[in-house]
Specification:
Number of domains: 1
Mean pLDDT: 89
Structural class: alpha/beta
CATH architecture: 3-Layer(aba) Sandwich
Low-confidence stretches: 1-5, 205-217
Largest sheet: 8 strands, mixed
Shape: globular
Length: about 220
């Protein structure tokens, strides 16, 4: 029952102007950084709002979530897999990129999930982990709300998560998406940015730039 209600609340909230602005910003960020990738795995995707938009832009998307209720709204054009991120039932070297859209911190054993991420990625495959930034005004406001999904977070230490990812990946990080109240703006400031993003490429791949190619905006 709780899973169904959470899904319904999520789908209802995303229709608001505020959350549509958040999702547009996240979508644009992912679209730019996934340039050159084709097969994408979204871990902990829940109702696949951003994933559906990426599919429309030409990516092949698989959504993985532990909640069958959350995947109930997945359109036919997106393959949905009900499984834990710690188990990740895919062969090695199956994907060009794996993304976590504000989901990694909610996974019980995120270390195992990261190990699996490295396993299922192809050489030079990309990891993009969008983490909630506990230093931000957005996070502090949400954590005080008893109905907020943020209260279910399991892992707040983003530095520890980054260290774990760095064992498997070459990493770059940045703060992203300024949020104060209902206002959304560009910011790389730790207090304003709702997200801390870790981007990685498998360490066993040849050294390549994590930055966007010239000419890709």
């Amino acid at each position: 029952m709780g899973g169904r209600l959470d899904t319904e609340r999520y789908l209802k909230s995303w229709q608001t102007e505020f959350w549509q602005g958040v999702f547009r910003a996240e979508l644009d960020y992912l679209f730019q950084r996934l340039w050159g990738s084709e097969d994408i795995l979204s871990v902990g995707c829940g109702p696949p709002i951003i994933e559906s938009a990426l599919k429309e832009r030409g990516f092949r998307i698989i959504g993985l979530d532990v909640s069958r209720e959350a995947l109930g709204s997945v359109p036919d054009r997106i393959r949905a897999v009900v499984a834990r991120a710690e188990d990740m039932p895919f062969r090695g070297s199956s994907f060009d990129a794996v993304i976590y859209i504000a989901s990694l911190q909610f996974i019980e054993d995120y270390r195992k999930a990261i190990e699996n991420t490295a396993r299922v990625l192809r050489p030079e495959g990309k990891l993009i982990a969008m983490l909630l930034n506990p230093e931000s005004v957005f996070f502090r406001d949400r954590i005080r709300n008893v109905r907020s999904y943020v209260r279910k977070i399991r892992h707040k230490d983003i530095n520890e998560i980054e260290r774990m990812i760095a064992e498997k990946f070459q990493v770059e990080t940045e703060y992203f998406l300024g949020v104060r109240g209902r206002n959304i703006f560009e910011s790389r400031d730790a207090e304003d940015a709702a997200l801390y993003i870790i981007r990685g490429i498998r360490k066993d791949a040849e050294t390549v730039s994590l930055k966007r190619p010239s000419g890709v905006s």
